[in-house]
Write a sequence for this structure.
């Protein structure tokens, strides 16, 4: 189902265009890396129904990543394609936040990572949808319906794991302890994002953080889980300083194109 | 780890406004909300539905196959019960 449509590039200075390119690549990398992580569950889900749910979410994110990469290729204007951008950039060139590259761990880790991301993703898309960049607004308008489902799905799981059995409780608490430290980077603007916020292309992250806090607090309360306070937040992914995990992930993701350049099927 | 299975749920999907919910299959889920989410993921991936019902399978009471003769055969020779003597206008679909 290849859709053909014209990509509208906003009329901005070369400098802003470069910043926009970096931001769009960051969105693309984030969706792609999380899609890949979820795809690792395919065939290994705890039950068939959840295996399918995770594959569905993975495919939603992959579709979103493709839209961003296509737009990034257009913004860059150097003849690179969406595939070049996904398959032929190294880990230090990737701009996804640390959270999404974290390993799947057990099901509770996957759910906590997903929920922390979904809460951000959903509220970000709501803003981008109303933003000044036509292309981003169009992608966001399509993706926000998917993200609304993702956050509903992962929230329901947080509630069931938190307010479930002793074992599910123990596992979800361990996952929150391990992953909470990566949630802050999502709404901590990089230098590029700060510049774009001034130009109006990136929404106010403080306002988004407030919406996330309300959302997370509501779900955690229903899950009878305490919201962690005063955790030191890790960051680095958005500026290319990644954890060791991303290299391994990309080795698998990019293997075929690296080994057989230009291969198609 | 507990090996207790999640209960089974029967899934009914309405494919279009105005049509009935139809039984499409069954799935496992811990509770009703999750059964609806699972049904969404398992049975509506290809635009099959606009509405989902789930019913825990244990609440479905089925007729006994041994009763088939007593239940259904008496209707065989009562053709007058079928409204087949009416002409259905072309514009009426889904009869």
């Amino acid at each position: 189902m290849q859709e053909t449509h014209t990509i509208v590039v906003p009329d901005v200075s070369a400098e802003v265009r470069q910043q926009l390119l970096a931001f769009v690549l960051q969105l693309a990398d984030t969706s792609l890396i999380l899609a890949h992580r979820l795809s690792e569950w395919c065939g290994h889900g705890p039950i068939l129904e959840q295996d399918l749910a995770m594959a569905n979410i993975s495919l939603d994110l992959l579709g979103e990543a493709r839209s961003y990469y296509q737009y990034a290729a257009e913004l860059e204007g150097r003849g690179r394609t969406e595939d070049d951008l996904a398959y032929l950039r190294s880990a230090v060139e990737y701009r996804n936040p640390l959270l999404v590259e974290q390993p799947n761990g057990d099901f509770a880790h996957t759910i906590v990572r997903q929920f922390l991301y979904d809460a951000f993703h959903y509220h970000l898309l709501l803003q981008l949808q109303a933003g000044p960049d036509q292309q981003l607004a169009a992608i966001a308008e399509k993706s926000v319906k998917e993200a609304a489902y993702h956050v509903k799905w992962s929230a329901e799981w947080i509630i069931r794991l938190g307010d479930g059995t002793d074992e599910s409780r123990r596992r979800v608490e361990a996952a929150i302890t391990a992953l909470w430290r990566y949630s802050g980077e999502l709404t901590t603007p990089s230098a590029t994002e700060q510049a774009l916020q001034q130009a109006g292309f990136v929404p106010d992250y403080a306002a988004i953080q407030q919406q996330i806090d309300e959302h997370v607090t509501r779900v955690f309360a229903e899950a009878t889980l305490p919201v962690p306070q005063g955790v030191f937040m890790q960051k680095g992914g958005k500026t290319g300083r990644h954890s060791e995990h991303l290299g391994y992930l990309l080795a698998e993701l990019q293997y075929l194109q690296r080994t057989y350049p230009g291969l198609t099927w | 780890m507990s090996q207790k299975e999640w209960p089974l749920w029967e899934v009914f999907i309405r494919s279009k406004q105005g049509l009935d919910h139809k039984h499409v299959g069954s799935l496992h889920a811990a509770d009703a909300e999750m059964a609806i989410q699972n049904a969404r993921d398992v049975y509506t991936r290809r635009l099959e539905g606009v509405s989902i019902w789930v019913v825990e399978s244990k609440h479905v009471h089925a007729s006994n196959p041994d009763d088939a003769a007593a239940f259904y055969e008496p209707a065989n020779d009562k053709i007058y019960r079928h409204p087949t003597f009416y002409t259905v206008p072309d514009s009426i679909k889904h009869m």
